[in-house]
């Protein structure tokens, strides 16, 4: 790979100076990249899918790695990264205690419904809360992403239809 020209390297590994972005100044190049990212894959289906994937990673119990995991998956699924990043923001620090409490409550309810109350799984309350939080987080991630996908798809589809009529 080192004996090839920069233009033959995959775009991810090219030095920044070798990537051609329209514009003369740095400001024009940044504006171009931001506009390109916001306009990429913005049909109602792609936008709703991007937002749902962001919410899924926002509720998932991989705090600290949410953005990295979303960026890796966004390259594979070709989703709109700014919209997905907006979805990750459901777990911002002011809301995080409420998200964790909701995950623990959901996990305890689901485990009790399945016949595995947390108290009978482990004797330690902290470990039981951790198990409930883990399962509850994944359940909230799935339910939240499906709900956000359905709601945002319907809203974006209605907005696109009303723009077409007007």
Structure description:
- The chain has one domain.
- The chain contains seven helices and no strands.
- The protein has helices spanning 26-39, 44-59, 66-77, 81-88, 96-113, 118-121, 125-165.
- Helix 2 runs antiparallel to helix 3 (66-77) and helix 2 packs parallel to helix 4.
- The chain starts with 25 loop residues before the first helix and ends with a helix.
- The model has no long low-confidence stretch (mean pLDDT 80).
Which helices and strands appear, and what pairs or packs with what?
Layout: H1 26-39, H2 44-59, H3 66-77, H4 81-88, H5 96-113, H6 118-121, H7 125-165
Helix pairs in contact: 2-3, 2-4, 2-7, 3-4, 5-7
Provide the descriptors you would attach to this structure in a database record:
166 residues, 7 helices
